[in-house]
Design brief:
α19 runs parallel beside α22 and α28 packs antiparallel against α29. Among the domains are: 185 residues, no CATH class; 78 residues. With 646 residues, the chain is mainly alpha-helical. It has 31 helices and no strands. 73% of the residues lie in helices and 0% in strands.
Length: 646
């Protein structure tokens, strides 16, 4: 098992690598040592350098740039990821993997070297070119299966099977196959569509930025500063988990990695202060998953959203701030109420880090500040802003003896960035296949018309049905790929119902993410449960309850886009934020069953109804909601002494 035996007083340290490998496909890599490791590291680092050069300086033909990029992804994908989980032989790669690697890489390089000829051919492709296309598609799908997992492959397989059997009108099987391969491999609406394009231009630079930033020790700084700020309050370690995960989400794009990274510190502390194992794991998982909605990175989906919606990246970042704050406020309120209900204390003064020494390390935030400033003011392109921030990281590290970035660490950071790109790019390639298949068959319109007809004129019904679709399609799928699928299938439904375009995309983005917490495929919750030695399903259910903000906030900005700063005034924004915060507080109290003291069943119902009315936009609902919540608060205060003496 993942854990050693525990005594009555404490638990021995767990194998975090084992936890990551169990719940995060990205961590299941081959083992390279000695000279092979040097060679593999060099290939990964050179890939990062190549991507930086192409995105910053080169002006290549798009087909050449994208096919070369995917060829690299296929090459390093097979080098890094074995066909199945389990114990790996050191410095070993089976012959069939070598063949798949050569065939897949060669397919995309063939396209790269013959791009102009293939473009001029149009739809008149030779038989051998169709075979090359099939090999290329299979190679990308297999890399995705190895690095991401089966759920997204099953979804893609169903859509392709539909296209092959019913969706394409060509009367012959060979004709349908040729059309599908030409559309998905050689066209710009399949593998080489928007997701891969955005990956090769923007996401890769930010992944490299994150790899460099990680080597400055900023993750530990986030945990320490969170401890210093909120660690001493009631239930402090859980609040540390919320604050630290929000800060880490600024640069991280993996809910499982966030959960394991900060959870290895916060979960044992939460258990030590009295939190139940399931609650401790759920608090960390819900906070870490929320890291993917925290600007500016947002799990890399912010770049894709900007491209899909047609607005500047900085615009997406600004609009994401208020919903993210409300989400984390909801989680924070829940852990606070749980602490009060259980009578939990915070960390002692001896356990808290000293604030003044931490302030001396505040310079670690400088690269982030530079990045946000450059992106926010649009003084530089996104790529150049990230590149400048990377240089700032290297400069800043010179003042940090513990984590100074040496030439060796620079090389390692480049290699880490290259490896980190495999999962995102492979998932986006398969997401492109899904989106392309939906487009070529007209399935998108059928889905849109079906849900619109089912919803009638009721936007709330369409929102609910879309939420279900997003959660189901997003299970086990990485954030970036999940958003790509939702943007092609679900967002147009809401747009057709009159929801603003950007609000529609934010809505599906949020519900694609909560699949990491929602049973049965709640990977972040299961990872947290493994660290806490808790029941996985109970943890997932508790995490879903804690993340109630992620289920409520999207409905708020879909029904009232003022939260996304759309067609609004400052007063409108202030009102909706205040009412939404009170509403989330009331809903959280209802779910926890505690406010000033333990709530009765009817107080919980009134609090829930009042909270939901406050969250639903409208003056009438706000007035009724405030009244209901005020009644519950008044009753709780009046019966406080009675409860204490009981």
């Amino acid at each position: 098992m993942l854990f050693k035996k525990k005594t009555a007083e404490q638990t021995e340290p767990m194998d975090l690598d084992a936890v990551m490998k169990k719940f995060d496909r990205e961590s299941n890599t081959r083992i390279w040592e000695g000279v092979p490791k040097i060679v593999v590291t060099s290939i990964l680092a050179l890939f990062s350098i190549f991507c930086l050069y192409v995105t910053l300086f080169a002006s290549w033909l798009e087909e050449l740039r994208l096919t070369t990029f995917v060829a690299f992804i296929v090459l390093i994908g097979y080098i890094m990821y074995p066909a199945k989980k389990g114990k790996q032989r050191v410095n070993y790669m089976p012959w069939y993997d070598i063949l798949l690697m050569i065939g897949g890489t060669g397919s995309f390089l063939y396209y790269a070297f013959n791009a102009l000829t293939i473009i001029q051919q149009g739809s008149k492709l030779e038989f051998y070119q169709i075979i090359i296309g099939i090999i290329g598609i299979i190679s990308v799908v297999e890399v995705c299966r190895r690095s991401v997992g089966l759920p997204i492959i099953i979804v893609a397989g169903c859509f392709v099977a539909y296209a092959l059997i019913w969706g394409v009108s060509n009367p012959t099987f060979v004709g349908r196959l040729n059309y599908i391969v030409r559309y998905l491999f050689y066209g710009k609406e399949g593998i080489l569509s928007t997701p891969i394009n955005v990956c090769s231009k923007f996401i890769i630079v930010f992944i490299i930025f994150g790899a460099f930033l990680e080597r400055t020790g900023i993750a530990d700084f986030f945990i320490q500063i969170s401890n210093a700020i909120v660690g001493g309050f009631s239930g402090g370690p859980a609040k540390v988990a919320v604050v630290a995960s929000a800060l880490e989400g600024v640069v991280s794009g993996s809910s499982v990695a966030n959960t394991v990274g900060s959870g290895s510190v916060t979960i044992p502390l939460m258990k030590k202060t009295g939190y139940k194992p399931e609650f401790a794991a759920a608090a960390e998982a819900s906070a870490s998953t929320g890291g993917q909605i925290m600007p500016p990175i947002m799990g890399a989906a912010a770049f894709l959203m900007a491209d899909y919606v047609g607005v500047p990246y900085s615009d997406i970042v600004v609009r994401a701030i208020l919903p993210a704050i409300l989400y984390f406020a909801g989680v924070f309120i829940s852990v606070h109420l749980e602490a009060k209900k259980e009578g939990l204390r915070g960390l002692s003064k001896e356990e808290l880090p000293k604030f003044i020494p931490l302030l001396k390390k505040v310079y670690l935030l400088l690269p982030l500040i530079i990045l946000i400033y450059l992106v926010g003011t649009s003084q530089r392109s996104i790529q150049y802003a990230a590149a400048i921030a990377i240089i700032a990281i290297i400069v800043v590290s010179l003042f940090n003896k513990e984590n100074r970035i040496t030439p060796k660490r620079i090389w390692e950071a480049l290699a880490s960035g290259g490896q980190g790109m495999i999962t995102v790019a492979a998932a986006c390639g398969v997401a492109g296949i899904i989106a392309g298949t939906i487009t070529m068959t007209g399935l998108a319109n059928m889905m849109i018309n079906g849900i619109v007809a089912l919803a009638g004129n009721q936007v709330i019904v369409a929102l609910f049905l879309t939420m279900i679709c997003c959660i189901v399609l997003g299970m086990g799928v990485p954030t970036t790929a999940s958003y790509c699928i939702m943007a092609a299938t679900c967002a147009p439904i809401l747009t057709r119902m009159g929801v603003p375009l950007i609000a529609s995309h934010f809505f599906v983005f949020y519900f694609g993410i909560v699949a990491d917490l929602t049973p049965p495929v709640a990977l972040a919750a299961y990872a947290g449960a493994a660290i806490a030695q808790a029941n996985p399903m109970k943890t997932a259910i508790t995490a879903t309850k804690l993340a109630i903000g992620a289920f409520i906030v999207p409905f708020v900005f879909a029904l009232n886009p003022a939260m996304l700063l759309i067609d609004t005034t400052a007063i409108d924004v202030i009102v909706i934020v205040i009412t939404s915060l009170i509403g989330i507080f009331a809903v959280s109290a209802s779910l926890e069953g505690f406010l000033v003291h333990k709530m009765t069943w009817y107080e919980r119902i009134i609090s829930l109804v009042g909270g939901l009315l406050l969250i639903y936009p409208g003056l009438t609902t706000d007035i009724i909601g405030v009244g209901l919540v005020a009644v519950v608060v008044a009753v709780q205060l009046l019966t406080k002494k009675k409860y204490q003496t009981a």
